[in-house]
Structures are given as C-alpha cells and as structure tokens.
Write a structure and sequence with these properties.
The protein is built from 1 helix and no strands. It is rod-shaped and about 95 Å long. The model has no long low-confidence stretch (mean pLDDT about 85). The chain has one helix at about 15-60. The N and C termini lie far apart (about 95 Å). The protein has a domain at about 35-63. With about 60 residues, the chain is mostly helical. The longest helix is centred in the middle third of the chain and has 50 residues, at about 15-60.
Length: about 60
C-alpha cells in the first residue's frame, strides 16, 4: 500500500535543492576566506606597528 500522508515531491525540486545548497556553501566559503584574509592583513599591520614601536622605544632608551 502506498503511503498517502506524505506529499509527493516533484523531481525538479531535488536538483534545485542541491544547487541551492552548493551555492550557499560556496558563498559562505568565499565570505570566510575574505574575512580570514582581512584579519591576517590587520594582524600583520599590527605586528609591524608593534615592531616599529619597539624599535623607537629601544632607540630612545639607548640615547
């Protein structure tokens, strides 16, 4: 006996769902990569600024 309570889903919904899932995952991955690159660049600039500040402090203490 077929189960009549569960609605029948058209076949075209399956590839649409798969494509949508892939699109969402791709966008999320690209956003994460972009965020990580920005954070890395900011951290690198902060490290450079810290190194410059340390060099200035050392130069002042030597003088």
């Amino acid at each position: 006996e077929p189960i009549t309570v569960i609605p029948e889903i058209p076949i075209w919904i399956s590839p649409l769902f798969i494509a949508g899932t892939i699109a969402v995952a791709t966008v999320a991955s690209l956003a994460k990569t972009r965020k990580d690159r920005r954070a890395s660049a900011i951290a690198e600039k902060a490290d450079d600024a810290d190194a410059a500040a340390d060099a200035i402090s050392e130069a002042r203490s030597d003088a």
